[in-house]
Each structure stands twice: as structure tokens, then as C-alpha cells.
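Incident review: delayed structure delivery

Summary: a single-chain prediction request sat in the queue longer than the usual turnaround. Root cause was a stuck worker, restarted by the on-call engineer. No data loss occurred. The affected request and its eventual output are reproduced below so the record is complete for anyone auditing the incident later.

Affected input:
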Amino acid sequence: MTGRGGNESAVAEGELKNFPHDIESAGEKLFDCITNPKVSFIRGFEGVGRWSIAEYLIRKSKHVFDLQIPVKLLGEDFSLQKAQKEIASKLGMTTSTDGDSVDEDGIDTETATEICTYLMGQKFLLVIGDVLKDIDFKLIGDPHLRKVLQNGSEIVFVGPNDLKSNVAIKLEDLSMDMLRAEASDIANSPLIKGIFTPDTVLDCFFYLLLFPDFSIGVVWLRWRWRAEGFIITEEGEEEDLMMFDKVDALLRELHVRSKVVYDYPNVKMPKSLAEKAKSLVTSRQRRASTHGRFWIEDGSLPMEDDEVEDIQRMVVLKIPKLSPLPQKCSKLSTLFLSGGDLMIEIPETFFEQIQGLRVLHLDGIVNESIPKSASCLHNLRFLRLSSCPHLQTLLSSFQIFDKLESLELSDGFYSIPSIPDEIFQHMKNLRYLHLDEMQITSLPSSISMLHNLRQLCLTDFKYLERIPDEFFEDLRQLRTLDLRGNSTMESLPSSISGLVNLKELILFECSSLKMNLLPHLRKLSKLEVLVIPSCQSDYYQDYRTERMSDQEVRADGDFL
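Output delivered after worker restart:
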């Protein structure tokens, strides 16, 4: 982006209208500082909003400089070599990638000299980022900036970390307007455009607030976002793969803009950002004007006189007793209830006012059966039950959830002896099933009837020694099989070789596994990720070598 003209020409009316107030204030402060040759730095709020401030500065100052050179390389995409290529390209130059003129950092020294010579005659603004550490300006042929900043030129770093500079522009607070501006920018980025709208980007971002105290598994998150309707995929064989790619692309965009820390297989919102973001969507005095209405409280449900008409997501922890929800909660789509160290009982009529619910997470409920009003939950797509002392009897009433796509059951410390064989036979739409920390010794046979299942996780079973030989015969749509933590399991069924669409097989901490899997693995032509017990890594060396070009084989210690 370049601009020429008189130094004090006014910015065209309307060009700065759409910027949030806090971005405008920071941009104006920075604009006032660029009257003397210096280096400035934009960080925003903990890295959030930094490029919005930079964009404001670029528009505001386009008539102050003879030349503007914005170099935007987000996150870890930044390097001196790439930055030099961007600068050269905007000046109509080319760079070499090899030869005597290229140094150890990939910098073309001849091009650097050419850039320096050109800039010495200009009053320019160079906005460059994301800069993660102090950089050497040899990329423009002037390491100490003694030549190119002689004509009132300005260099502005953009990045998420503090760097040495004459002026540092930070934001002390986070605003909804800033987040909306950032969401719009993300929605228009190359990998996201046409997939997520700005509102959906905000929905996905705020969703992480529901689980603020721990890293969230990306697999876990994918199915929740799908259940919420944030991710829309075309029907067909590859729809789940498209979903995974879309979630990955969005999380990477959020990561490079400092909104989340994304390190597969986990993602987490930084604590300082989470605290500020939570205040935007949960404070009662602001709720009427905020996006994605939340109720996140310890120990209390909303009362009739609370402003709850637009609440969409509700998390209530450490609640001693449930009372009926206000009739005004009809827009609720996510509900997470936990008794903490206490046990809670759900009234029979509890779900009557929230028939649009799509995601339900119940932790520590003492009910012996699903409340009758749950039959109203026709839109429920995701259900998780954990630490329920009567889980075994709860399961017997599961036939009402015939539209479920995702189900998670965690036994915890209550040690139910078995799961009814027929439990899953009515769940024809189930795509994701996770059974965790079960004390059972055998698996319910109805799992084999889940023909649409894409992801099966049977993790941390205490006493499961084997899986029936025919177990996987009808699960040909399965893409991921996660058996981590089954330390007593000694073998896998031969039917595993029939999982022709399997892409991930995770045998993390299956330390008792003795069988030779190699004959079966060689039949899994689509397998891309294999995680094996570390004690058996040498045993699979031949397979690793054979498939290294198109497959990732990891031992336990390398997985998480």
C-alpha cells in the first residue's frame, strides 16, 4: 500500500469512521508521536487489536509520508527473509534466494543495499510485523537506522510481545468493538473467508470461556462447535475431514492474533484475556449490549427478575440445588451444570423451558433416570455425563436422545459394573462417542451398530483386557480410534484391519499390548497418525521406515 501527497493533507472524510473508539484513541496517540524519526511499537491489549491499530495509523497518515510500506506476516510466519521480500516487492524490486549475496539469515545483501539507497531519498512509513523479538535492520541495508531515518521517516513494529522502542502503544482494556473488528478481519482472512462469519468467529472465541481453567482438547471442541451449529459442512464422505480442517484454520488464525494459545492437541485462552473477555459477556449491567450472552456463575441460576431473555450459554458450578429456570431462557443452546463436591438433583420439569438446547453437560447429578422433561430436547446434539453415581440407570433412559451426534460418558470414581448391551442401538446418528474412566470389563455390543460413527474414544479403562473379534466389522466410517490409557488391554481384534477409512490410531500408554499389529496396520492404507506405546517403538521401526513419507508414527513420549 503506497500513498503520496502533501504532508498535511486531510484524510478523506469517512475513511476512519468504522474504527472502534479504543483503536482510534491508540491510533491517534501513535500518530501524534511520528513527528520525529524514531521506532515505535504496537502491542494492543496482550497482543489483541495490534493490527487494527496499525491499520488505523496507515489510513490516518497516508498523506504525511511519501511512501507507506506495510509488511504483515502474522505470528510465526515472520522471518527476516520474508520481510525483506515483502519490502522489495512493494518497491518493485526482486530478491535472490541463493548465491554469494545471500547471508546466513537468508537476507539478500545486494537487495538490502538497493532498498537502503531508495529509502534514503524518501519520507516513508514502514509498518512491520509480527515482530516477536528485536530484529536487525540489515534487511533494509541500514542495521543501525542512521541513514534511512533522516527525512522524518518512521518505523513501526507490530507484535504480541514487548520490544525496545521509543514509543510503545498498548491498550489497558479490552472492548467488544475491538473484538468485533478483529473478528471481521479474521473472517476475511484467506483461510477463513467464506467459512465463518464475523459473528461465528466471535461465537467460537467466547465459547472457550465456558472452560476457563484448563486446556481444551481440540477434538473435544470440534464436536461441540459442530453441535452448536458454528460449523456447517456438506453431506458426504469427507464432511468430518472438512470440519476438522475448518476448526484448525480458525484456531490458527486466533492463535496468531494472540486470542488463544493453540498447540495441538490442546487450545487455551490466555488467563488475562479470558478475565477481560468474561467481563464483557457476563456482567449484568452490560448484558443487554453484548454478543453471545453468557451466564457463568458459581452457585446460582438466574432468577425471574434477571435479564435473561437473550442468554445463549450457561455454566453454573458448585450449585447446591436446582430450581426451575425462568421461562425467559428459551434461547439457551448450551448448559453446563456441576455440583462440584456436592451432588445435585434435576427437577422433572427442569428442561421444559429450554427446548432449543443443543449441548448439555451434567456433572455430579444424583438422578436415577433422565427427567421426563428431557424428551422435549429435540435439538440436542451433544451430551456429556460425568461423575454421576447412578450412571448405569441413567443410561437405561437414553433412547429419548435418538438425534444425538456426540456423546461423552465418564464414570470417574463411582465404578459402575456394566453398561447395558442395547444402550446405543437407537443412536443411529452418533458420530462421536467417548467412554472414559470406566470400570467395566467388556464393551456393550450395540457400539458395533453405530454405522455413522467417525470417532471412537475408549480411554483409561481400568479392567478392559480385550475387545471382541468382530467389534469393528461394521464401523467402516471410523476415522479416529483412540484407546489411550488402557493399561490392561493385551490385544486388539483382527477386525481392526477392516477400518478402511481410519486415519488416526492412538495406543498411548497401552503398556500391556502384546500382539503383533503389523499385519493389520499394513491394511490400513489411509492411516496418517499412529501413536504407539513407547516400550514398543523399536518393534515398529520397520513400519515407521516403510511409511515415513506419508505417515506420522509417534511413541508415547512424543504425543502430548
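Verification: The domain at 21-170 is CATH 3.40.50.300 (Rossmann fold).
Action items: add queue-age alerting; document worker restart procedure.
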